[in-house]
Specification:
Layout: E1 5-8, E2 11-14, H1 28-40, H2 42-50, H3 54-79, H4 84-89, H5 91-114
Antiparallel strand pairs: 1-2
Helix pairs in contact: 1-2, 1-3, 3-5
Amino acid sequence: MELTYHWKGDYLIPDVSLDDGSSYNIGKYGRMRQKYLCENYPSEYLHLVITEKLWKQLEELDEECHEMLDRLMEQMAKREGLTEHMKSTDQLGWIRKMNSIQSRAEEIVIHELIYTN
């Protein structure tokens, strides 16, 4: 394998890319998982980087987190009786309750999917 370089100002930067040529969209939860793996499981993190499985795994995890968050928020709102009528009559109360629901659902998602091995 031969590396090629390009100049960026006064520095030579290696031309490195993933072999499959894919572009991955990693959001908030994917980045949180990446940081968690890097800090707590460096050997597993390096293995995933070297085998080029990390980015795909992080993108899939990010999607899974968003799906779980949406599902939990919907269930919690239904259980707590939040309706469109409340949204139109008591907007600040509805926002306060939805923010509370979002915070609790996000804590569950982070605990269940991000900080597990």
